[in-house]
Structures are given as C-alpha cells and as structure tokens.
C-alpha cells in the first residue's frame, strides 16, 4: 500500500482489482452540513459567538432563580446541490453492456460513455471517439474560466476501440501520478498487450468539462469524486465572520468581567450591610429561608445583581444587528444603479452577515477573463508597408462612418466593425503589400471553418486573437473557407484559391510566434509568420531596416493605446531549401529524445531572413467602467491584484488597458524563475527600495503611499508555486505589497486561494475576491468576502459567492456606497446601543448603595422589560438602517471617505470605552440629580416627593428623554421613518406609562401593578420637570460642546464634504463629474482612448494560443474550436476633486455667501443653529470667539 501514495494503478473493467486500493468513490459533498452533522456543527458555529454563550448562561440563571421554563423550537431546513449532482445519470459499461448508473456509483476503472453536451462525470482517460483519429472537443469554462473549445485526443492504440464489445474486452492498466490539483499536467503510462504508451494531459477529460461538437466518446475513470482535479481545486466552505463580530466577542467577555466585578462589589456591600446594619432588623424583618447568615445572603445577592445588570448586553442587541444587516442587504438588492438592463440582472446580497465588512476592504483579488473583460475582441488598427490604418480622425471633425463590406464582399461578416476607408480602398486598387498582408492572415492560423450554408461561415478559433484576425482578412476580401490535412482553401477577391499546406511551425510561449509553409497554385513556396515584435523583428532580412523603424513606431503607438499587437513577415523558399529543411524537420519530429528542442532548432533555422509585411493591433475590450472603477478603488487605498490563468502577455496588456500598469511606473518586475533559488534571487533583486523609517509611528496607509505607486509585480504560476513556500512567503508578501499593482499569471484555482490566504495571514486585512467562473470558486470561498460575476461562464462562482452582480464596475458602488454606509451605520448603532444600555443599567448599580444592596430595581418591572423592546429599539434601528453621513454621489466622488473603515476608526476598543464612559456619566447624572433634588422637594400640598415611585418615574422619564435627544444628535440623515420612530417612541413611552399606572389595570391585576397613579401624580409636579430638564441639559450640553469644538478645530473629511455640499447648494453651481463620479454610460467615453505613454518602449504582443494544434491539423485531425473575445475600454482622466481634498481646514471655516435663494424654513433653521453655536462657542473660550467673530447672519 505504500506505493499507492506515490502512484495510482487502474485496471479497466476490473472493479475487484481496483477496490483493493480503496480509491474514493465518485460521490462528492460541497455543503457544510449533512443530516447528521447539521445540528452539532451548526451549534458549534453559533457558540463561536461569545454572546450566545453569555445569553445561555443568563438564561440558566433566570430559569433557576425564577423557576420559569422557556421552551422554543426551531425548524432548520437546508438544501444542497450535492444530491442533484450525485444523482445525475451516466452510462457505464458493465459486463459488456451500457447501464445507467448514478454518478455517485461510478468507480475507478469503469468505462463511461459520454454524449454531446454532457458533463464529464469523473477524470477520464479518453479511449475512443466518434470523431476521426480519436479526437473530441470540450469546453472547460467550469475549470479554468475559458470559453474556448479545446481538443483532446485518445492514444492511437485505443482510438479504434469504438465498438462496445471491443471496449468490454479492454483490460489495459494505467499507472499514473497520485491525485493533485494541477489542471494542466498529467503524467501516466498505459500498459496493454505487453506494450506501454505515454499518457499526457491531452489524453484526459476532467470532471467539470462539457463534451461539445462530438457525438459520443468513451473514457476510463482514473480519478473519482474528491480525487478529481476539480474537487482538488475546490476550497473548503468556511463560516465567514466580520471583524466587528470578532471584536464583539472580545467586548462581551470584557463586559461579562465588568458585570462580575459589579456583582462582587455589590455582594460585598450586601455582606457588610447585613452584618452591620441588617442584623438590627432581624427581630421584625428576618431573612427569607434558606438564608441563615450574611454570607449566604451576599452569595444570593451576587447572582441577583448579575441578573439585574445583564442588560448591559441585552439579547435585543443581536436581534437588532441581524435586522439592520437584513435591511442593508435589501438596499443592495434594490439598488437600480447596480441593475444591468442588458442582462436583466440585479445585484444580490446572498448573505446578510458581511455587509459592514464591505466598508473595510483593503485587498481585492480579481479574475481577468469575464470579470475585467467582456470576452469580445476586435481588429482595430494595422500597419502595412509603413502605412498605418484605423487611426481616429480629428475629434473636432466629422466622425467616420462604419464601413459596409457587403457590396464589396458578399462573404463578409456583418458584425465586423472598421471605420478607416483608406484600407478598403487600398485592397480594391490591388496594392500588393495589402493583399499579401491579408493573405497571410487568411493562411497563418489554426482556425477551423464550418459552412452551414453557402456563404454562411462559422469560425472555430482556438484563441480569440486568431478569430479576430481571420475575420478581418475575411471582410477585406481574403476569406478562409476550409482546410484539409494538406490544403487550405480561400476565396481571394472573389476567386477561389487552394494552397498546399506543407508545414505548420507551431506556436508556444517560448517561440512567441507561429508560421505556415504553403505552396500556391503557381508552385511558389512561401513561409508566412506572425508573432511578437520582440522576437520577429530580430529575424528579418537586413534590407528591412527602414521599414522596421517605421513599423516599430507604429507598434509603440498601438501598445500605448493598450492594443494587443503582432508583427507579420514572410519568406520565399526555393525547392532545394524546402527539401533540405523538410528532411531535418522530419528527423526532429520523429526523435525519441529531446523532441521539443530539436523541433525548436529546426523552426529557428527556417524562420530567418524574413521580409516584414506590417503589424496588427487588436482591441481587447474591457467591461464598461473597469479603468474608472480601478482608479477610484485605488484612490480609496484599496490594492487590486489580478489572478488569472492566462499567459503573461495577455494579462500584462489587460493591466495596461485597465490602467493598473502605466509607463510612468518606475519599474514593472517580472518573476519567472523555475527553481526555488531563481525565484528567491529575482524577488530579492526586484524588491522596491523602502523609505527611511519615520521618527514617529504613522498610519499604515501613509507608509504604503511612500512605497506604492511606482512599482508593479508580474509573477508566473510556476514561480508563484515556489514563492508560496513557507520559507519564501514572507519575502514575497513584503515585495508584492510594496507594489501598486500585482498580476499573477498562469495560476491554478488553488493557487488563487493560496494567495488570498497568504494576505489574510500576513497583512490581517479584509480581502475581497471577485470572479465569474468555477475556477474562481476556491478564491471566492477563501476571501473574507466573495463576489460572483453572473457572466458567460456558468453560475458556480455566483453560487459560492456572498454577493453577485453582472458588471465589475458595480464593485465601486458596492464598496464605496453600500459598504461604507453599512460600516458607518453599524458602528453608530453599536456605539449608541452600548451607551443607552450602560446609561440604563448603571443606575441600578448606584441605587444598590442606597437600598442596602438588596437587589431592588430602580425602575418599574414593566419599564425594564419594555425599555429595549419598545421605548428605544425602533429609533436605533432606523438610524442603523437609514443613516448616512454624505450622499452616495459624494461617496463616489471622494474615495478617501472609505479609509476610516479600513483603519477601523469608527468602532474599536477606544470608541467602545468612550461610549460606556458616556453611558456611565449619564447614569450618574440620571441617578444623583433626581436623588439630590427630590430628597428635599415637596408637592404644592406639602407632601414630600422623596418616595420610591416618584423617584423611579422621574429617573425613567429623564432616561427616555435623554437617550431620545442623544439619538437625534447622532442621526445624520433624517427620513420620515426616523421622525416617526424617535418622537413616536417618546410618545409611546408616556402612553404606556400612563396606561400601566392607571386605576383600570390595578383593579384587574392588583398584584401585578404596584405603581398605580404614580405617573399622574409625579408628572404634574413642576419640580419634576425641572429635574428632568436639568438632568437632560447636564447630559447633553457637554456632548454638544465637544462635537462642536471637534467640528470647528479638527473636522473630518466627511465634515468637509458636507460643508462643500452645503456651499455648492447655496451657490447653485453645477457639479462637475470627477474620476470618482458615477459611471456615465457608454456614450460618454466610447470615443475616448488612453493617451500615448511616454517612457520606455513596451511590446504590445499578446497571443492567447497554445501549442500542439498545428501538429493536429497537419496530421489530418480536424479541429473545431470556438473563439473567446476580450477588449479594452478607454478611461477618463480627472482629478478635480483632489484639489478640494487638499484645501486647508481654515478655508472650510470661511462662511459662505448667504445670497443664495434658500427656502425660508431652511434659512431660519440655519440661522438659529449658527446663533446657538456662536454663543456656546463664545462662552467656552475667548480665542475661539475671536476666530469666529467674522461670521455674520444676513
């Protein structure tokens, strides 16, 4: 069994042999629970919240103390997609016949039949196919996010086993690598009939793929269930918790400790009082059984006070938190500005527990394909013989019209878009260079063509670049029609031409080019080549120097525009040259050792002394608003990393298109080492120089600004595998986080998740992952917040996400508006909630010193019950749901408003202690002011007011009024609901209090209502209202003074923005849109393009191609491949709001002109407020009075 860990052995059609290895079944489980584990696991997760343990403890105490039994039952229902997947049907070859089996019952070693458009049930070795040469075509969107169709081929020896009987007798044995998560690699050997055959990834069909354009195929199960590469890349489902939740756990522990301390103090006081004073009353007021001494009395007093004082953290707090989060989730769902009319898809908050965490994100990890891009590519510009085409005309002049190709070419693609008529005229007049240019594009590719009807062509391209180039050639009169293993048929300017295909020099990432050698009908042999300018220009004939210089300038311009470029060249070959090279190529192709190196050398030999034709520029379109969104999020101090499975050139070009990368950067570091030592050396050599340590500690954001913005890092997947190792991860994180932009290329789904986990581990920052394909699921699950794009790659990412929408640009609004508001509202809610409950509860503590520590409550028992449920619950809920400091437009216009959430400034341990300090201060005022005044006060009739009921009603009324005024001050955005809830709750208090103290209820329940008539008699006394007013003033005036001074002396950015908005409203000036403004729609920027970059020259080469397809074509193995489209979108430039942010504080205090046509009521309110603050300011300090003396009210 030791060998099982190193290799896997699978024998076809032999379950007994395979079962002795105890391989995993094909049953999967992706949900967190099942029927058995739901209750214990869910309870374990719920009690990760310390508050739940705290409430359980208090509940037990109250059950024991009051002999109440509370019964509640909850029905938990959960659904999982696992059963649906596990119960899918698959055709399994058992004892010579096909039988339907559930996926969960498929075993390693079974032979499965797949039909067109079916999902692959397990990781299969392709045995045979209905297509020629054992080929089949698959779509891997669920694996790697790519919508291109890919080709797979069976081993030649099994490709003829298409008959059921032949497959039933197949008993080959496969020895291969153990289960792993590498999607692009498979290493194994097939042993059959005393021969062995090498197996590669080209022979494998992986679970999650879909069979396309293939009638049927058969495969041998190699990996099943959790051993499949799809499941190996699936991250574990985690219970996500916000930083505020984690902080609340700590605070609840502290509060519980504080509660115990108060209980101990009061219990000690009870013991001392009972011993020194209470013993004097024993003769007529004995202890209740079973109390028989002062120590036992103190013990009971301790637990009684724990129960009385437990309202410092009432259970209504957590109920209110969930209600607020639910409201925030509905706001996201209802946001019309996050609704995509094209897709008819609205934003969806799939969880209600992470809303405030959206306001604290520091790192965003984004997929590229389908997330940043639209999957659309277009032929945009070209350079032919030194002449550039496709340039935009003068912006002030008349805009060009889209060319109509149909009259010129009936076979043209009607969807093709091009505007420069000079290129079409050049084709029509028969320019030889232009014709040769498009002839190259129509011949040098691996595209397959399907002609469903006469003239109706459908191209299946393995790469989106090739599809765009071949389509361009088609529209300009050079139409690729069909191919055979040895020929390519085209229609050139209406004339059908068939070329003999002599060789395809295949593409790979090292060569960065591909070539074809063809013989035209006249017998002339020519090599056509296209590839990266960095490699192709070095292989030109020396006579091309002048043309190469001009073309290089054009390439620089195209690259500066963010376009994907290729250079084109050709070479004429004589028969002798062809025969000589063909022999060497044939020898290299049949070599058993170092075959790739020998082929590369042969290709290098023939691809020399070529003649330059020109260059192409393809626009890789981004989604709408991607550059703007990235720019605004960067200004909000959010770092964006792109994690993509695409190759380096493609990802880098997208980086330039979306303005993550610019030529203004000091350097773009490339990490591409293949060994641990080389990766470490590259990391150390490219580490950005850190600034000298400041003498005083500075906020992390300021420190990062010193070293960010100048560098970018691009790292390949094989290098990332080494960088993620334990001894190098710290060095990688420090280097990457010092860069403004990070792009990880050729990464596996699991590597995406590992990068996210690495940042979570080392930076302790809130992370967000966004993607649209199944290959992004593990990343989405690993991040604190997962966002799914409902695009063209299935719904796996959406199902695994916490939030979903259809466009990347909506992320800006999700974070800067909804996230920031949710964080702000939750922080204000928590601060106020702790304040009001400490103000309410601590009065009992002070009262204990005046009631013999007898655990007597201050308030009526019904007031205690209704305080958190009725009197104060709705106002704080309204504030927590509707409050906002600035409007949504200003949140987008000033991204720096987002930083307080990242730095956790609005609710932390310091803010918590300030809140409870204010609550304790309020409780002191509410207890001692009425106590001091009422102790000597009398009614008009001479009856003293110093009784328990009067004191309780006065204190309770003062408390409700004070907390109502306080929430009115805390509320920054008033709605009709806020007014109804705040003032309605105050009215409800008086209504309920008079009802509970009425004679009617007392007559019905004489033992339940002990405060009969107290409200009426107490609130009729003027001294009581004066007491309430004095207590309210003492509680509120210091708060007003502090906030006014803080606003005057040290305003926050939100205060500045509000003031700016007030000035704008008063001056009635139109507000210009800035870079951070809301998305203006396609029309406003569709003609825009990135300006030309200065600095070093950058190759715009990008070619999303894979090697191996040329060999398949020349061997006669037809290919059907679909194209994937991408494109770049131009960006707006504006930084007008930055100047506003840099204004000095003193400019904020300059009073605006009041000549605006304000409404009368607004003027009156504004004047009254200014007068009030003027007088209050003058009383506090004369210096501030002088500073403010210039303000005049008109």
Can you summarize this structure?
This is Phospholipid-transporting ATPase. This protein has 1194 residues and is an alpha+beta fold.
Radius of gyration: 38 Å
Strand order in space, largest sheet = 14-33-32-31-15-27-30-29-28
Report the uncertain regions. Answer: 1-5, 61-80, 691-709, 1069-1097, 1118-1194
Distance between the termini: 93 Å
What is the overall shape? elongated
Determine the number of helices (DSSP H or I, runs of at least 4 residues): 43
Biggest sheet statistics:
9 strands, mixed
Instruction: Count the beta strands.
Output: 33
Structural class: alpha+beta
Average pLDDT: 79
Helix content: 40-55%
Strand content: 15-25%
Keywords: ATP-binding, Magnesium, Membrane, Metal-binding, Nucleotide-binding, Translocase, Transmembrane, Transmembrane helix
Membrane topology: Multi-pass membrane protein
Domain P-type ATPase C-terminal: 798-1051
GO molecular function, one term: phosphatidylcholine flippase activity
Key phrases:
33 strands; 43 helices; 1194 residues; alpha+beta; nine-stranded antiparallel β-sheet; disordered N terminus
How is this structure best described in words?
The protein is an alpha+beta fold. 43% of the residues lie in helices and 16% in strands. The strands form six sheets. A nine-stranded mixed β-sheet has the order 14-33-32-31-15-27-30-29-28, with helices on both faces. A nine-stranded antiparallel β-sheet has the order 17-16-26-25-24-23-22-21-20, with helices on both faces. The longest helix has 39 residues, at 810-848. It is a multi-pass membrane protein.
